[in-house]
């Protein structure tokens, strides 16, 4: 899920300008990546061995109450679904009539090792503390340290809200047709993650990485990454990782992020294989993110993320380049322009250069 009001498009060169320069992109060659030898994947390795080398260990997500400290209690306004049934004219109308801002007593927590603030309604925190059986599996503040440790840059979560209610926006999503019984488990708005009655599960790490990926995209909103990812999605429309991804490019990005950062080496390689262009663009953003995180705040999985990113620069880039050159020669007018845009972008990023 990602809910945001930021629909402005980042700057981009005019398509006509790109089309004019297409011939020069045909002469670009992949730049040798200086880190190639760092990968323990040897060229003759079987697909299974490569997948194994690129797997990320499944770690314990055990609760760490020792790393969570209750700081303050106060009151803030939380969005809550109103009694108005709808239907609603548009999103603004939904927010005006369908959502109330309700003063809510909350507790605020700090998490050792991370800059993120955790906020939970007082009524919910005391139910969790009381150990009621119906809340056995519910995600609480003490479950967050292990999840934050796994994020490539945990500061992308400025705040985490643990809600004991449904996302009020479910009603809007249901009205607009994705599904009639859609229930968001989490959402991300302006670097603030909210969980909605979320339970611990085997896919919790993956789900949090999905939300984290939304923020990764927004961190680089002012660069070309958003537009180039759109080109990549349009050029690779034959690969649909799941139905939810098809909602929009933000979901395409976040669903891809589950594969790029998830534990399974096979699923990572499958995505890279079916969608090399999307993979290349996503991994550009990840590289900039990983380069920017200070050594004392690195993820416990940092070296695995770096290995995957380098694998993409080394092994997936030549495949992507070949695909783009082929599209420039044989694609339709739109495809030629999108492919050239992507090649120009890879050149700007220093990944390919004139022969
Ligand atoms: Zn999403």
Mind explaining what this structure looks like?
The protein has 355 residues and is an alpha/beta fold. It folds into two domains: 15-59 and 219-354, no CATH class; 65-199, no CATH class. It is built from 14 helices and eight strands. A six-stranded mixed β-sheet has the order 2-3-4-5-7-6. Helix 10 (249-261) packs across helix 11 (265-274). The longest helix is centred in the C-terminal third of the chain and has 29 residues, at 302-330. It is globular and about 65 Å long. The two termini are 43 Å apart. The protein binds zinc ion (ZN).
Helix/strand layout:
Elements: H1 15-20, H2 22-25, E1 28-30, H3 47-53, E2 68-81, H4 91-98, E3 99-111, E4 117-121, H5 122-130, H6 144-150, E5 159-163, H7 170-175, E6 186-189, E7 192-196, H8 204-219, H9 225-235, H10 249-261, H11 265-274, H12 276-292, H13 302-330, H14 333-348, E8 352-354
Parallel strand pairs: 4-5, 5-7
Antiparallel strand pairs: 1-8, 2-3, 3-4, 6-7
Helix pairs in contact: 3-11, 8-10, 9-12, 9-14, 10-11, 10-12, 11-12, 12-13, 13-14
Bound molecules: zinc ion.
Number of strands: 8
Backbone shape? globular
**Small-molecule components bound:** zinc ion
Question: What series of H and E elements makes up the topology?
Answer: HHEHEHEEHHEHEEHHHHHHHE
Q: How far is the first residue's CA from the last residue's CA? A: 43 Å
- Beta-strand percentage? 5-15%
Calculate the mean pLDDT score and round it.
Answer: 88
Number of helices: 14
């Amino acid at each position: 899920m990602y809910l945001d009001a930021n629909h402005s498009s980042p700057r981009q060169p005019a398509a006509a300008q790109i089309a004019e320069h297409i011939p020069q992109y045909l002469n670009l060659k992949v730049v040798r990546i200086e880190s190639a030898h760092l990968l323990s994947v040897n060229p003759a390795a079987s697909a299974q061995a490569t997948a194994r080398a690129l797997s990320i260990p499944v770690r314990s997500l055990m609760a760490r109450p020792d790393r969570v400290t209750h700081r303050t209690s106060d009151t803030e306004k939380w969005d809550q679904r109103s009694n108005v049934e709808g239907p609603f004219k548009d999103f603004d109308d939904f927010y005006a009539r369908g959502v109330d801002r309700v003063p809510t007593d909350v507790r605020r927590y700090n998490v050792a090792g991370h800059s993120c603030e955790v906020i939970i309604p007082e009524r919910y925190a005391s139910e969790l503390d009381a150990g009621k059986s119906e809340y056995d599996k519910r995600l609480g503040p003490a479950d967050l340290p292990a999840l934050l440790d796994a994020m490539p840059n945990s500061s992308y979560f400025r705040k985490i809200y643990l809600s004991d209610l449904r996302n009020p926006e479910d009603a809007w999503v249901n009205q607009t047709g994705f599904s009639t019984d859609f229930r968001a488990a989490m959402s991300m708005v302006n670097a603030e993650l909210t969980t909605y009655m979320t339970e611990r599960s085997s896919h919790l790490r993956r789900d949090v990485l999905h939300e984290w990926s939304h923020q990764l995209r927004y961190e680089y909103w002012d660069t070309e990454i958003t537009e180039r990812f759109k080109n990549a999605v349009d050029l690779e429309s034959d690969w649909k990782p799941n139905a939810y991804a098809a909602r929009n490019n933000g979901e395409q990005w976040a669903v891809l992020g589950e594969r790029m950062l998830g534990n399974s080496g096979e699923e990572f390689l499958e995505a890279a294989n079916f969608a090399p262009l999307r993979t290349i663009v996503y991994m550009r953003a990840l590289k900039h993110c990983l380069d920017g995180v200070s050594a004392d705040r690195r993820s416990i999985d940092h070296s695995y993320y770096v290995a995957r990113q380098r694998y993409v620069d080394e092994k997936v880039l030549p495949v992507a380049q070949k695909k783009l050159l082929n599209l420039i020669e044989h694609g339709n007018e739109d495809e030629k322009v999108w492919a050239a845009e992507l090649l120009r972008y890879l050149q700007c990023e220093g990944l390919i250069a004139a022969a």
